[in-house]
Amino acid sequence: MTDMLTATEPFSGSAAVAATGTSSLAALLIALPLLGAAVLLIGGRRTDRTGHLLAIVMVVASFVLGLLIFFETVGRDAGARTSDVDLFSWVPIENFHLDLGLRLDPLSLTFVLLITGVGALIHIYSIGYMQHDAERRKFFAYLNLFVAAMLLLVLGNSFVALYAGWEGVGLASYLLIGFWSDRPSAATAAKKAFIMNRVGDVGLALAIFLMFKELGTTSFSGVFAGIGELADRSPATVTVMALLLLLGACGKSGQVPLQAWLPDAMEGPTPVSALIHAATMVTAGVYLIARCAPIYNLTETGGLVVSIVGAVTLLVGCIGGCAKDDIKKVLAYSTVSQIGYMFLAVGLGAGVYALAILHLLTHGFFKAGLFLGAGSVMHGMNDDVDMRHYGGLARKMPITFVTFTLGYLALIGFPFLSGFFSKDPIIEAAFSAGGTKGALLGGAALLGAGLTAFYMTRLMIMTFFGEPRWKQLTSADGREYHPHESPSTMTFPMMVLAVGSVGAGAFLAGGERLANWLAPSVGEFHHPEPPIPAIAVTLITMAFIALGVLVAYLAVGRRPVELARREDVSAVVRLARADVGGNAVNETLFARPGIWVTRTLVYLDAKAVDGAVNGLAAALGGLSGRLRRTQTGFVRSYALSMLGGTLLVVAALILVRFA
């Protein structure tokens, strides 16, 4: 059995073709950033001065190579846009022969361009942001490692290869989130992210085991070719497989109930927040479900659960963002919410997977721009993240203000910006599900749009408008605030991302350009038909957005921002401040049961296992001590012992003889 691409494509029906031209160099996509990470980590202090430039060159080179492969693939017929690259035999054993290879198709290449393109901009931004950090070389090494692992995740042609990249991303994210490990909060956040992701990873691992048991393969082509027969034979098995895959996706993408790690990940440097929350790690779950479209198309229950998780998560994220004063945590909860929209879309099933990928791409532009903008604000405000200490920064930081505003407008779905073209169709598709299901999912998506407008408008007002509250304060380290614009290495990536925030949605959605490109990977796109005219859904959505902006203006814009946090607040605000119960839920579901199990095992180990071993040792020790006392050294004692033994033997013989 082999895990290379030998079967037909699950949707197009055309056989996967061998890699040709630049596609044969696809392994370099992963090898280049991996080499950059190795050189910087092994080279040590000798690479301090130029190591960051090497890291940037490696990622930019991967992006250029990705573009070349993309244009070569676009030039082929739709049925020939899936190719494979054989690398080497990974597990050459008799009963499980696994060859490592790469799958180049529209879905993987879309992610390659997003990861390397946005990743390169974040690398460039990091030059200025990390300029004075003594461990800058190590930081760029970890960035390269992260990009390499993410590329393996999306390019691998089997679930085992995907899992290898999956775990690599988890390791790199742990290193990046806890980069400033001298801060207890950063070390704790990194450990929390790593452990909570392991919970989800168990689900993915079990799904892979189930695939191999039932289908005898873990390759995409093999699994997708045999999943139909398995669904006919055992539909419950396919549903269990889909739910296990969803558990893995929830962990990596910060979906309910495994979302609590994601806001805490803001303890890492801001470029890390942009990389994890915009273009890479949190989108891995969406990629996994989109890649597994042939599985989810065969289980209505699995798709429904994905949509429910997405709808619940988008509301949880919105509520969490409404009462936070930390600018990065507001954006983190926004990411939780927007990934929820993507899960909602992929859960709706065949025909609308492309909508989730469209929103994923536009989100990559405007959310990366927003995070980099937040980092720029922090750069000019002594690394202060508390929005209550901001105000009036629009004139002090004009480039940051303009680029941030464009990202804000795109996020809330302002007409004709990127978010408008990607989020509105998801709301329409949710209502198109019909019946109670459509009403609940569509209502959640609609309410989420209004709440997004509220918390993002609140952020804009507190940060860029109103009185400059920083004039009457000093930062935690005793320095006065002197807001200023960031250097060009930071503002240039922000401007590029702002262009994407404005035009990417219209370009990708126009003429269903992205949907047609993705069709060989996720199936043909079917435009959703809501129960009311689409224009009516759009107008209602705009009304909810306008209402959210208005409420934010009335609640924040027309009254002074309080520097001290009020405690006499509503239950909803208290819920939002408490992370919408995310930590409490995870402690109840995972942490406390784990602690109880651990304590029980420790008790059993100490009392049962160690008790038995120690008891036996004590018994033998006591017995040997008593026997030792018989060794007196007197010949008469030994003679008496021999006589006694002889008498016992004679007595035994007599008894045997006359018995």
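(the above was protein one; protein two follows)
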Amino acid sequence: MNASTRSRAALGISAAFILFAPFVLSEFYVTLMNYIGLATLIALGLVLLTGVAGLMSFGQQAFAGIGAYATGVLTVVYGGSPWLGLAAGLAITGVVATGLGLITVRLSGYYLPLSTIAWGISVYFLFGNLEILGRHNGLHGVPALELAGWTLDTGRSFYVLIWPVTLTALFAARNLLDSRAGRAVRALRFRATMAESFGIDTARLKLLIFLYAALLASLSGWLYAHFLRFVNPSSFTVNVGVEYLFMAVVGGASQVWGAVIGASLLTLLKEWLKDILPRFFDQSGNYEVIVFGLLMLPLLHRARDGLMPIFARLTGGGEVAERPVLAPALTKRIRPVKGDALLEVEAVRKNFGGLAAVQGVSFEVRAGEILGLIGPNGAGKSTVFNLVTGVLPANGGSIRFRGTRVDTLPARRIARLGIARTFQHVNLVSNMSVLENVAVGAHLRGARGTVSAMLRFDRSEERRLLHEAASQIERVGLGDHLAEPAGSLPLGKQRIVEIARALAADPLLLLLDEPAAGLRLQEKQALAELLSRLRAESMSILLVEHDMEFVMGLVDRLVVMDFGEKIAEGLPAQIQIDPVVLEAYLGGQ
């Protein structure tokens, strides 16, 4: 049985089990399956938030509590409809999550998880101290749901609501990650600077994922309230939040289906341990928590990426990037007239404390030329790149692109004007395929958002974006590596992938930071031929490079920097004999 057959068989068995579970399992295990479904919704949000976007949260149980208490108050206290309670819970959660997210997602390091613990504790005590919420006794008598005239008042009947909702959420999340928006989300965790440089609004995207995870938790809380028919603060403590995070991590923090595996394992394990352990200790107690913690240590030690990757290998379900099908070409920018001023850098300055990294540097890049920016290590070349692309703010001077001042704009706004770049240190998402990494470069050439992606309404645009990415990969000579993880390639080829990603943005100005570093002689020759072809197509290139032989035979003009200042500018032949350059950069004669 090949991998594809094993994968389909595993999926079929899983689908059949979920479909027939309420007919073959006892009421006890059907109830456990319902708990697994409810936990999966919250763990799924954490997969997207923590595992994919890199925003750790210990407070998702608070959003579940908001969903549960909103419908509890509306139905028990005011006699309203449970479905109105769902709308109210999602609305309140949306407002609260947006407010918290505007503050929380901007934090970094340990401040982010600490803040989620803080508001998780605050919301728990809010639940336990408000009279209208029943204080610590909670709310009892939450009505059963009615669906198409059918009262969902048993575990078996509620199963037909919980699991369709859970599966819909899982497939929607899977669709999201397999899209333009999903690639942007996956770039957030380790490559936020790169993402901004290709037009991705990282702050907005983080807030969106934070909000989506909160709404999933709120939906779970609403289902929980009407399933158990009561709401109590003890279900929404910080300990419960930690447990949900464990589910995501154990299943596979970056794997959508890992949410199901983690929720299933932890829910079943806790229930079994509650029955088994008291027999050994001859008394009741929360011994399962101790054993649970001890079991998690070797599990996380042996499977740091969770159980889902192991399951995928066993079933042949690992994801493989496929060569895109033919699709209509994306719209291209109109090229400026050759020789026109494209980029104008005027007396730009950048200080880092008392260190003047760039001091009054001025130069111009014209349409259709390759301008080399050279100088010894520490001369300030990469700092100039970061100033031009908005990664760093300038302390003085001005930078204009096609007449528009850009030194006051964020990186994502500059990218929209037609500037794309590579980085001095390779900036790829290593666990994404070469194709997906390059497709990130074409982000601004698409328009479909997260909702369209979840509903698969973005397929036509997605085919065009992937076809463009594949075309650029072929263009730079890496067609045979299209489906490979970018991190598995040698350093030199990773740099070429970065060039393909920049080309996918269809830039008017291409900034290349040491693109030939790590390349062999034949690869450098191929790169020089590629850059020459791009120049012939009226693309302007600003190039930083230390290989003088490579630079001198390629560029039209050179700007030389030393200690943050421009010391020379001219044709390659002039620079080679300039005594100031020879002394400062080439070491004198």
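Reviewer note on protein two: The chain has 23 helices and 14 strands.
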